[in-house]
Amino acid sequence: MSSTAKLVTLKLDGDLAHQGFRVTLEIGEDGDRPDLELTGTLPAAPDLWRSLNHWRQHYHSLEVATRIKPKAIAYKGALQLTEACRQAAGELGNQLEQWIASDAFRLLDQRLREALNREDRIRIVLRSTDPLVHQLPWHLWDVMERYPYAEVTLGSPTLERVERSPLPHTTVKILAILGDSEGIDLEVDRRLLNALPNAEVTVLVEPSRAVLNHQLWDQPWHILFFAGHSHTEAERGCIAINPQDSLTLAELKYGLRQAIAQGLQLAIFNSCDGLGLARELECVRLPQLIVMREPVPDRVAQAFLTQFLKAFSQGDALHLAVRQARERLQGLEQEFPCASWLPCLYQISAEPPLSWNALRRTPGHPQPKILAIVPTP
Q1: Are 4 and 120 in contact (CB under 8 A)?
Q2: Among 21, 31, 130, 160, whose CB has the most other CB atoms within 10 angstroms?
Q3: What tens digit of pLDDT does each residue of 152-200 get?
Q4: Contact indicator for 73, 63 with CB cutoff of 8 Å
């Protein structure tokens, strides 16, 4: 049976803890109008909400070096903390399974499975105004087991296509920002980017705000990459671009908007607490992002980047490259519980499936790569 690229959109209007959700399901071929649209509901799930908070508390208590700015840690027994996190993760997974299996959602779940084939390449875009929905481990939904070429993409509440100028390049242009690296090793990130085929990479090492803004305005880019420390304050994502300066992405809004108009299609934040960064970028309509939903251990961030860049640059569609790299993190979960829960794809504007060759105007033989390291004052 031949495979088809399918787009599944689930819109959840409401809230998790109190009201529940009105659910709209759309299914069709990716790039076309949906063939099927159905509505249903999901009930309020206060137990699921409590399980999510419980797991997050245990996860944040783990003693690992992460790409969030170091803070004082009250050390407890590492084995007890790890086991408590695993138990909380198991309970959260059980609560999510029970919620999705509710009678109110059963018809939509059944029609979804009837409309898909096991060989289909499926993007499942999950849109909601409730940020708690995006914190749930949707990769545990058994649909992911049934359809090996499916991946859940978190989606902005509203999706629209953004007009941009195509880049006349046969190489993928990447702007890489290596920010504040206190306590973490960013040299691995640099080497991985340097090894990419058909890529022209410009690296900014701990840049000033002025240097970063200049690069966003004055050159076109396909991909923006950031590695370093990041965090969320009052629902706003912040990145530490150097040891002294942390910026909200709103403070780069005009430069980012210009970069998007000139062809920027993907941002990769190989750093902590990425959902706040994703929400910050909704205002500039950056098409797609890869972020970490919780604080990410340094080794996990490096392993994900290694596997993602390998799969994506060798031709896998973006969502399938993310799935493959995410699932390979399971091999680290003895030391880093829930590592495979962390990476997620976030879609802000309505775009067709992205691939490495689609970023290049003319696919062909590998081109010489130019690595520019821009000095900063």
Answers
A1: yes
A2: 21
A3: 999 988 876 666 666 667 899 999 999 887 877 888 889 999 899 889 9
A4: yes
5 with 110, same domain?
yes
Query: Do 149 and 185 belong to one domain?
Result: no
Does residue 272 lie within any of the structural domains? yes
Do 150 and 208 lie in one domain? The reply is no
Domain boundary residue, one of 155, 190, 224: 155
DSSP strand pairing (236-240 vs 246-248): antiparallel
Q: pLDDT, tens digit, for every residue of 334-358?
A: 999 999 999 999 999 877 889 998 8
Pairing of strands 266-270, 20-29: unpaired
Q: Judge whether 189 and 302 are in contact, CB under 8 Å.
A: yes
Q: What is the CA radius of gyration of the chain?
A: 20
3-class secondary-structure state, position 344: strand
Q: In this structure, are residues 184 and 229 in contact, taking their beta carbons and an 8 Å threshold?
A: yes
The number of C-alpha atoms within 13 Å of 258 and in the hemisphere containing its C-beta is: 12
Average pLDDT over residues 353-369: 64
Condensed to tens digits (0 to 9), the pLDDT of residues 325-334 reads 999 999 999 9
Place of tokens 């708690």: 132
pTM comes to 0.89
Read off the pLDDT of residues 301-321 as tens digits, 9 standing for 90 and up.
999 999 999 999 999 999 999
Q: What is the pLDDT of residue 72?
A: 40
Total tally of structural domains belonging to the chain = 2
Structure-block tokens of residue 262: 């000139």
pLDDT tens-digit map of 223-266: 999 988 887 766 677 889 999 999 888 899 999 999 999 999 99
Length of the chain: 377
Please report which helix (H) or strand (E) contains residue 153, including its range.
strand 150-155
113 and 220 housed in the same domain = no
Q: How far is CA 156 from CA 12, 101, 125, 286, 287, in A?
A: 11, 25, 9, 11, 10
> Which residue, of 155, 188, 216, is where some domain finishes?
155
Which residues have C-beta within 8 Å of that of residue 233, sequence separation ≥ 6? none
Cα-based distances in Å from 352 to 257, 291, 345:
20, 19, 14
Place of tokens 């920027």: 264
Question: How many helices (H) does the chain have, and how many strands (E)?
Answer: 12, 15
Helix, coil or strand: residue 38: strand
